[in-house]
Every structure is written in C-alpha cells, then in structure tokens.
Amino acid sequence: MATLKDIRTRIKSIKSTQQVTKAMKMVSAAKLRRAQDSAIQARPYAAKLKEMLGSLSSRVDTTLNPLLSAREEVKKVLVVLITADRGLCGAFNANIIKLAQKIVTEEYGDLYREGNVEMLCAGTKGNDYFRKRGYAVAKAYPGVFQNLHFSVAKEIAEYAAERYLTGEVDRVIMVYNEFKSVLAPTLKSEVLLPISPEEDKDGKEDEKGSASDYIYEPSPASIIDVLVPKHLNTQVWRMMLESNAAEHASRMTAMDSATENAKELLRVLNISYNRARQAAITTELSEIVAGADALQGE
Known about the structure:
The protein is of the alpha/beta class. It has a domain at 30-200 and 214-246: ATP synthase, F1 complex, gamma subunit (Pyruvate Kinase, Chain: A, domain 1), CATH 3.40.1380. It is 60% helix and 11% strand. The protein has helices at residues 4-57, 92-107, 109-113, 124-132, 150-165, 220-297; strands spanning 77-82, 117-122, 137-141, 171-178, 186-193. A five-stranded mixed β-sheet has the order 3-2-1-4-5, with helices on both faces. A hairpin with a 7-residue loop joins strand 4 (171-178) and strand 5 (186-193). Residues 200-212 have low confidence and may be disordered.
C-alpha cells in the first residue's frame, strides 16, 4: 500500500502535468484559429485554379505539356508525406504514417521491393519514422512547421515536377491530413503528378441551350504552361495548410482529454489519500487507547 508521502508526491506531479496540458490546449486553440482561417481561405483559389486548368485542357492537346501526360506504365513512384514536427497530438502522426506505409508496401508493394518507391517527408515525425526503418527517403524537410512558409511548398512542388519531367519517377502521390473538424481530421492521398484536371465546368449550356466559350489570349497552350506550375505550388501549399490546421486541432483535443483524465485521476488519488490518512489516524488512536489501558492495568 502506498504511503501518505507517496500519494502526496504523485498528486503534486499530476497537478503540474495538468497545468502543462491545460496551457498547451490554450496555445493550440489560439494557433488553430489562425491555421484554420488560412486553410479555408486557400481552398477556393486552389479549386478555381484546378477548374480553370480543366477548362483549358479540354481545348488543347495535353500531350504538349508533359506534366499533364500520364505514363503508360508506372515504374517509379515518389510519395510525399506531410506529418507534424512534434508529438502530443493524439493519433495524428501515427494514422498518417500508417496510411503512407500501407500505400508504399501494399498498393505499390512490387515496386517497393524492387527499390523503386522513394519518399519525400515534410515534417520531423515522418522523416524519423521512415529513415529508422530503412525506407528510401529522397528528401526531407524536418522542422518545416516551426515557421511555415510558401517557399517550402514551392520547393517541394518544383522538386516533384523536376523528378517527373526527367523520368526519374512516373507518379507523385501526396499523403496528408485534411482539416474537416476539430474532432477528427480526414486522411487523404491524392495523385499530384501527372495532373488530372477536373472536367470542363465552363462548358455548361446557358438558358438558350448554347455552350459557353471563352477567348483565351495569347493562346490556351501558353496559358497552360503558366498555370501548371502555379497549380502545383498552390496544391502543395493548400495541403500543408490543411495538415497544419489538423495538427493543432488534434493537439487541442488530445490536451483537453489529458487535462480531463488528470482531473479524474486527482479525484481518485484524493480519495485514496483521505482513506490512508484516516486509517493512519485510526491506528494512532488505537495505539494510544491500548497504551492508556495498559497503564491503568498496572
């Protein structure tokens, strides 16, 4: 049975931990508000850019731009994984790492065993996990979320595009957490390259029954050459913003649960402490009474 001193020490330790988890929850809540706003603001621009690219690609020969042309056979794959730099955010990192590992070892298992699957890890947790287990990590960006900047997303997009254009990889897959709600992020895996634009949404018929058409200057082909790199940069940036917001939401939820668990544990320990204290007082009173009876007997 634990002594009173042991219980007091444990209560003090849990109270200190509870203060830390409560502070981390408040910090994550403040950061989440800004990260959520940034992710939501990036969505319409990224969606409209993809829609415009789809409209243009329906008017030109997509084979003119190699980033829009799918390879007949996929021989090499690059998996871009976005994780957090820190822990204490529940199953946020574990779930996305598990999904990436499943994609590498199961969906592209044959290529992985041949050594034709490489990884690009944005975030410390994913980089540490896959490097320790012997996966081929071509490039890593540890600590990227300490000071998240668009230049990092642009660098990742340019690196992926360069590897695809030179034929070093035939497909680029993004694996990340998409922010949907505070309670649970959504695990996502999307093909970044080759680009598969959405169907032309500008070609809908109007009230008179004629399809809408636009005049592109100088030409649809030249505009596509400008939009494609901009599209890649924007999509990677949006995914990093989504992952950043989802991380803060997961950490806020995890720290809230930890604070509540500490509160319940303190309640149980206080009961145990009072019972032990009462037992000690009862034992002391019994010894005093027994001693007094012995003295009277003499």
